[in-house]
Write a structure and sequence with these properties.
By secondary structure, this protein is mostly helical. It is 77% helix and 0% strand.
Length: 295
């Protein structure tokens, strides 16, 4: 990976880590599935006028909208109603093995022992972090979060299978399809949507704006570019930085304590990601492998 793409992958992880706290703030005042639908509707309204419809890829975009938009994000937003920010930030890392598993099943991608060791070290850091958060988490919301990370792993590989596509077009049309699914689900399953729109605080609306502009338009715009350009197994490990950013944001924004286990876990996670990335750079220089289609 080029230096610019490495920096872009790190930026995505930081944006998403910060995003968890903003979602937590907003779901305290909005019904979670309704909030997720608003998120994607706002994204679609911002972007859809400026991009051409990728008609030949619409069926796959519809599948991606279900995996990423309907299941993953709907479940993440719902899960944050009953789970702490730190737990969500750490639990999201389960998306890494699911992404690699689906890459093996759907794309026949392989990875060697050095990358495996790097991922093992990074996961050791996640396990250290996992012992830190409060244990008061709803089993139902934890189960929903598990479904979210499985859908995220599948969605990454569907994006790879999609092939070259304009990133903003993908965000726009996926947002439109996902908003219909989520708003319909909210209408069937939730209540209080109108009251939330009328009475939500400025802080809750600010959280939604961050989710739309930073986490979705910027973060996923960069993410689709990276997944389209490189093997999924090369890009996904950068998301191991998300819990580090999420825990630190919890300290700065939500008033969480910065304990020794958080510091050590974050450092170990960073070390694992560094080992994985150094291995890729050495491999690319040695073999001059093509990086795949650009998005």
């Amino acid at each position: 990976m080029s230096l610019i793409d490495i920096l872009a992958a790190v930026a995505v992880a930081v944006i998403w880590g910060v995003n968890i706290s903003f979602i937590k703030i907003s779901v305290a005042e909005f019904p979670p599935i309704f909030l997720t639908g608003l998120r994607f509707l706002m994204v679609a309204l911002l972007l859809i006028w400026w991009v051409r419809p990728p008609w030949k890829q619409m069926r796959m975009i519809g599948l991606i909208s279900f995996a990423f938009g309907g299941v993953h994000f709907g479940s993440i937003f719902y899960g944050l109603r009953g789970v702490d920010v730190s737990i969500v930030a750490i639990f999201s890392m389960l998306g890494v093995p699911f992404s690699v598993l689906f890459a093996r099943l759907l794309l026949n991608e392989r990875f060697g022992w050095r990358k495996s060791c790097g991922m093992a070290i990074a996961f050791a850091g996640v396990l250290i972090l996992l012992g830190e958060p409060a244990a008061t988490a709803s089993p139902l919301h934890m189960a929903v979060l598990f479904m979210a990370v499985v859908a995220w792993g599948l969605g990454n590989n569907l994006v790879k299978m999609l092939g070259p596509v304009n990133n903003f077009a993908l965000n726009a049309w996926m947002g439109l399809f996902a908003s219909v699914q989520l708003l319909l689900a909210s209408w069937l399953l939730e209540a209080g949507q109108l009251n939330a729109l009328q009475n939500a605080s400025a802080q809750a609306w600010l959280g939604l704006v961050y989710v739309v502009l930073m986490a979705t338009v910027t973060g996923y715009g960069l993410w689709y570019y990276l997944v389209g350009k490189y093997d999924v197994g090369r890009v996904v490990p950068f998301t191991l930085l998300v819990p580090v950013a999420g825990v630190l944001t919890g300290v700065l924004m939500m008033g969480d304590d910065l304990s020794l286990s958080k510091v050590v876990g974050g450092a170990v996670t960073l070390a694992g990601v560094a080992i994985i990335q150094l291995r890729w750079r050495r491999s690319l220089k040695a073999t001059a492998l093509p990086t795949g289609p650009t998005a």
